[in-house]
Amino acid sequence: MNRPVATTKNNQQNSNIYSQQSTFKIMLLGDSGVGKTCLLVRFRDDTFLSGSFIATVGIDFRNKNIVINNKQVKLQIYDTAGQERFRSIVHSYYRDAHALLLLYDISSIISFNHVRDWLSEIKEYAQTDVIIMLVANKVDKTNERVVTREMGENLAKEYEIPYVETSAKTGLNIEFCFKAVSQALLEQTDLAASHTQTASKILNNLVQLNNRPAKQSACCLHS
């Protein structure tokens, strides 16, 4: 592959467990208005962008450092514009992405129907080993929901990608999405020599474990 799974920096001043840092590039994709920027701000700053704000133009970029399994991880997160006129700009960033979070709005059937179009673009422009997570956002909007959980899960199953429900407003599963992706990429790096598991399989296992309590108690999904 032309793109490395991760880059690692050694810190000569630290000999403890945090002496190495892996860097992963994550892109947020989906139609305009599905909540990509709100999801990023909730994760990075633990803040919800309420009210109106200017839509992303082209590409916005932010970093966040996290710790996964006693290892430092630097996430380079790209918030992309969903409008058609910016697609050519976004396409140029696909190639180097390690992970893609593909969002739709559960109150917008149009954004859900466009998921297939986004997946076609991913297949055309991204690396074959990129990991993808389908994210059903805005699940706090229970009274406006038109895309059911079953619809989202069936689509994810069709494309063999993990499915997660989130809310940037309440913070539901926001941190999990980024940490699960990071953990999958880290474990793939550690297991690269043995080729025992791919990052996609690891991520799918993590998502299944995370979704299990939600299925057992559906009343808690949209709280």
TrEMBL record:
Keyword flag Protein biosynthesis: no
InterPro entries referenced in this protein's UniProt entry, alphabetically: P-loop_NTPase (IPR027417), Rab (IPR050227), Small_GTP-bd (IPR005225), Small_GTPase (IPR001806)
Alphabetic keyword roster: GTP-binding, Lipoprotein, Nucleotide-binding
Gene3D superfamilies named in the record: P-loop containing nucleotide triphosphate hydrolases
Gene Ontology molecular-function annotations: GTP binding; GTPase activity
Nuclease keyword on record: no
Pfam families in the record: Ras
SMART domains on file: ARF, RAB, RAN, RAS, RHO
Protein's UniProt name: Uncharacterized protein
Organism: Rotaria magnacalcarata
